[in-house]
Write a structure and sequence with these properties.
Zinc Finger, Delta Prime, domain 3, Helicase, Ruva Protein, domain 3, binds zinc ion, Rossmann fold, 29 helices, alpha/beta, five-stranded parallel beta sheet, 4 domains, 604 residues
Length: 604
């Protein structure tokens, strides 16, 4: 049986024409050869696996070829070419600076080029990963670069150009290698499959190219792996399975659910994805990339940026017609944020679900331009069972603190509006929630408040935006009405009050913001506390708070009752860092020992 040679080596390009996806760059190099205008140092920059070292070797061979072709390619037949192809040429020295980065390593290789070449005209030194050289090694290199022997050509290669000393950069002719396009990689894989007698589905090779992220070497090694896995017949299914790759179709489906505000369906689809064993963070990253592709498909100019197989392009363009730019901007940013925060999320699944819920609730008419999730929610659920789906997902996690405040909002609203029929995207604009009663309410409030600079109240105001302290007046304005309000409005002013407390009330303020506040019948505001200490802490603020809510909501019947409730573990966790730590120790004893050994304190 033949020894197996990895495809990346077996099919390493031997000529510039074989090099995939770097046409402009190879043409420039060939022109340099035919016009005999060679620089003494080149710098090849670009991502890994895009052909930097391969091009350096082809270049070294071509400039030493005894019978070069007219277009600058090596003949691959002369003695010099043969010695290159058999890897016994003395005219090429390679050093990988990632492994050999000392000044001695650089000196050793420079010493080897002191003797002029016996065969051919040039000695070529390829320094791979040159950004990894130590400072002294880089200086030694610089000296030689300043006064190189006429027959020496340096080719430096790096994935990180910005780390190269400017003094070195200035002595090199710089070539930027691009990531390879999916279609180029797919084309090359087809060539290899053809030569190896491997059958394939076009979609399948496309998936491999995607996974390789622009690098041919990676693409070929994945190709080898899948070939082994699938026994020489590469199908779309076999690639999905062996690469643990999520079918594009999921991304198309998810985007459709999100843009159509189908929270339920999005949650179920995500459940499906999780059940298939996919990681939520990877999914969110993939979804962000998918949405980016949808965005560039909207415009004829940017559609060129769509780097996917031809058969997928039409699908992207079709989906892009259903998504507004505002939605896409918001969705891309939200999904990207989630995939970044995923690693540190306390409840990873929930982190993804919140991102999906918020994206599905994105509203075109949001004046914040999509910078934050819309707080005025449309009806989202198809049936009355739906709110339960939200309720089963506890929306507050301690690890997702920045989201906690926001996250407490959607559930009650969703519940309160659940009975309304589902509105489609197009109908939303025409059914902006009844502006008239709201305007009249605002007018009344303006009349009833003595402070002129107080902000008018609208339900559009997002909770998050309340940054500046609000002036709180204890004396009541003349007459208060009995304007109905909902829990969302209540929570808004509750948070506003808590956030406006003086710095010395910081602890109370924090606690208040984390409390469960429910709106009961007859304007009763029920506050849940979990222990006496919390009760004592909150109690003194209640009269002021009551007056504040009455005034802000223009309803004199508002009254607050504190209710002591049993604390669930989850509530403990979100309560304070010390309790959080206790819960963590319960789960992992080592943590407690560590705290004792190192005498660590949990900061409140
Ligand atoms: Zn030759």
């Amino acid at each position: 049986m033949k020894d197996f040679i990895v495809s990346a080596r077996k099919y390493r390009p031997q000529t510039f024409d074989d090099v995939v996806g770097q046409r402009a760059l190879s043409d420039t190099l060939k022109r340099a050869i035919t016009s005999h205008k060679l620089a003494s140092a080149y710098l090849f920059c670009g991502p890994r696996g895009v052909g930097k070292t391969t091009c350096a070797r082809i270049f070294a061979k071509a400039i030493n070829c005894m019978n070069p072709l007219k277009d600058g390619e090596a003949c691959n037949a002369c003695e010099s070419c043969m010695s290159f192809n058999e890897q016994r040429s003395m005219n090429i020295q390679e050093l990988n600076a990632a492994a050999n980065n000392s000044v001695e390593d650089v000196r050793a290789i420079i010493d080897q080029v002191r003797i002029p070449p016996q065969l051919g005209k040039y000695k070529v030194i390829i320094l791979d990963e040159v950004h990894m050289l130590s400072a002294s090694a880089a200086n030694a290199l610089l000296k030689t670069l300043e006064e190189p022997p006429s027959y020496v050509i340096f080719i430096l290669a790096t994935t990180e150009k910005q780390k190269i000393l400017p003094t070195i950069l200035s002595r090199c002719q710089i070539f930027d290698f691009n990531r390879m396009e999916i279609e180029d990689i797919t084309g090359n894989l087809k060539m290899v499959a053809g030569k190896e007698g491997i059958t394939y589905e076009e979609n399948a090779l496309n998936l491999i190219a995607q996974k390789a992220d622009g690098g041919m070497r990676d693409a070929l090694s994945i190709f080898d792996q899948v070939t082994n896995f699938s026994g020489g017949n590469i199908t779309y299914e076999s690639v999905l399975k062996s690469l643990n790759f999520l079918d594009y179709d999921y991304y198309f489906q998810m985007t459709e659910k999100l843009v159509e505000h189908q929270v339920n369906a999005a949650m179920l689809l995500f459940n499906d994805i999780v059940n298939k064993g996919f990681d939520g963070g990877v999914f969110m990253g993939g979804l962000a990339s998918h949405l980016r592709n949808v965005m560039v498909s909207r415009d004829e100019e940017t559609v060129a940026l769509l780097d996917v197989a031809a058969n997928l392009k039409t699908r992207y363009v079709e989906q892009s017609k259903k998504c507004s730019l505002k939605f896409l901007y918001y969705a891309i940013a939200r999904c990207d944020r989630c995939s970044n925060e995923y690693k540190n999320a306390y409840n990873k699944r929930l982190a993804v679900e919140i991102a999906l819920i918020e994206t599905a609730q994105f509203n075109e008419d949001d004046t914040s331009g999509g910078a934050r999730p819309q707080k005025t929610l449309k009806s989202l659920f198809r049936d009355t069972n739906a709110p339960a789906a939200v309720a089963t997902a506890p929306v507050v996690t301690p690890a997702a603190k920045p989201q906690a405040k926001v996250a407490t909002q959607p559930a009650p609203e969703a519940v309160s509006q659940a009975k309304e029929p589902v509105k489609t995207d197009s109908s939303i604009k025409s059914t902006v929630p009844s502006p008239l009663p709201k305007i009249s309410k605002i007018a009344k409030i303006k009349l009833s408040t003595s402070s002129a600079d107080e902000k008018p109240r609208t339900s559009q105001q997002p909770v998050e935006s309340v940054q500046e302290p609000v002036q709180i007046q204890t004396e009541q304005p003349a007459v208060l009405g009995e304007i109905p309000f909902d829990e969302k409005q209540l929570l808004y002013y509750w948070q506003q009050f808590a956030q406006s407390l003086e710095p010395e009330d910081h602890v109370a303020s924090m606690r208040m913001q984390g409390l469960d506040v429910l709106l009961k019948e007859d304007e009763l505001v029920e506050v849940h506390v979990y222990n006496d200490m919390l009760n004592k802490l909150i109690l003194p603020y209640i009269p002021r708070l009551e007056a504040y809510l009455q005034r802000q909501l223009n309803n004199h019947k508002i009254h607050i009752a504190i209710k002591k409730v049993e604390v669930t573990e989850e509530q403990v966790v979100r309560f304070n860092p010390r309790d959080q730590f206790k819960t963590m120790v319960k789960k992992n004893k080592t943590l407690g020992l560590l705290q004792k050994d190192l005498d660590l304190q949990v900061e409140l």
